[in-house]
Structure formats: C-alpha cells, structure tokens
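This entry is listed below:
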Amino acid sequence: MFLTVKLLLGQRCNLKVSGQESVSTLKKLVSKRLKVPEEQQHLLFRGQLLEDDKRLSDYCIGPSASINVIMRPLEKMALKEAHQPQPQPQPLWHRLGPVLAKHFEPQDAKAVLQLLRQEHEERLQKISLEDLEQLAQYLLQETEPWAEKKFSKVTHSLWPA
C-alpha cells in the first residue's frame, strides 16, 4: 500500500509499505526520503501518536492514508535552551483582563473574559492538523519572501488578511 507522509511545513512524499511494517521502520523510510532524523520524528495518524514498537495495522492504517510528521527539537538544542534563562511571556488572559476592566464593571469584565477563554478553548479543539499545516504555510509566506506560495488561495479563505 502507499501512504502519504507530510511534514507540517509542506513537504510530503509517498511511501510504499506493508500494513505489517513497524512504526520504527516507517520512521527509517521517512528519514531517508524527507531527511528528518528518526529521533526527531513524531508520527501522527488521525491525531494519535504512533508508537515505535507497534505495527501500522495496529492503528488500522490502510492504503492511501495520510501520516503527519511533527519534528521535535534535538536534545542538544533543548539542553542549551534549558540552561539559558528565558523570560516567561505573560498569558494573553492576564493582559486582556485590565483592558476589559477599563470598559466594563468588574463582574462584567470577569464574565466577558471567561466567555472569551471558553470560546477560545472550543475553537482550539476544532483545529485539525491540516488547518495547522495551512496556517504554518501562510505564516511562512508572510515572513519569508522566498517561501512557496502554493496554498495561498486556501489559507486566505481560512485566515483572511
């Protein structure tokens, strides 16, 4: 069977595998084709993280399935970042509270903030990996002029400028 393997930033490839292949074997194939080290790969199928010691058939992965690859940072990079003190960004909700307090009574400001947080959480639950991939592509196009403009029509319909 053929699987489509996609990186979050748009790279993709088709791989011929058997349903009896292990996830670790699939990672080796992905490493060869997409040049992503195996230790950096998180493979996802329908939002579920695939474990190295399981087989593709354990996840009911069939022909023409789409596997997403999420790259984790190398441990060395993570260790360097851990040693450097980084300022903790203040959550949006802490900054939004004082703004709302200027326009609403205290109890109303608190209620509005609570509703905004609830709506935000509900919308986050509805985001698919495909939406995230399109958003990443859209953001790359804005910040990097050399980036490919392949998905611009689709992303503009999802995230208007």
Q: What stands out?
A: Residues 106-126 form the longest helix (21 residues). The first strand starts at residue 2 and ends at 7. Residues 92-158 form one domain. Residues 6 and 68 are 5 Å apart (CA to CA).
